[in-house]
Amino acid sequence: MKKNLVIAIDGYSSCGKSTLAKALAKKLGFIYVDSGAMYRAVTLYFLRNNIDITDDAKVVDALQHIELNFHSRDYESHITLNGEEVSDEIRLMPVSENVSEVSAHKIVRHEMVKQQQRMGKSKNIVMDGRDIGTTVFPDAPVKFFMTADPKIRAERRFKELESKGNNETTLEEVFENLAHRDYADTTRKESPLVRADDAIILDNTDLTQEEQLDFALEKVNPFLVY
Predict the structure, then answer these.
(1) d(Cα 30, Cα 21) in Å, to the nearest integer?
(2) Which residues are documented as binding site?
(3) Contact residues for 213 (Cβ-Cβ < 8 A; gap 6+)
(4) What residues form DSSP beta bridges with 68?
(5) Which residues does the annotation place in the binding site for ATP?
(6) Most buried of 67, 89, 183, 220, CB within 10 angstroms?
(7) Whole-model pTM?
């Protein structure tokens, strides 16, 4: 098999991008890279250290003190921030409410894109995010753009938060947060969320996880060279 095949998955928040990406990686034996987790970890660092996102000098300095690493257990992607496991904390509402602003920052995006591109130079990877098929890997042979009904997305995210013990956030707050993030992601100046011209649309509003995986595998199989 080709040794640096990149499968790019973009789309809106809580559309199941990571679920599909992890399933594809497991099925194909690829490495899964959660680019969104990188922006969330940076956001967490900024919140903890009161970094003013409008102060470019402080942002540049902060990024020099951030070390992100991924490790995998059973194809679940876990991220560490300066050696600390933060996979659960970065999914909580304080980070969700601020990640769009942080990820829209030009300096932050440039640094994260450089790190993401390095990951895809010599390995078979599945990477999900907002601009993977348009900015990070515009030449990726396989690109998906995922979408789903906003109400379904909010319900999925709400259930995810509940499963992690967060019972303080309401479904309405989650819905509003997703709407805000959609607007921020699609209107930001730096690498906005758009569908690449050659991306395959995957609307999973009415699909099971198994059905969306089958759909994706059918599209990926022609690009696998053994």
Answers:
(1) 10
(2) 11-19
(3) 20, 23, 24, 27
(4) 81
(5) 11-19
(6) 220
(7) 0.80
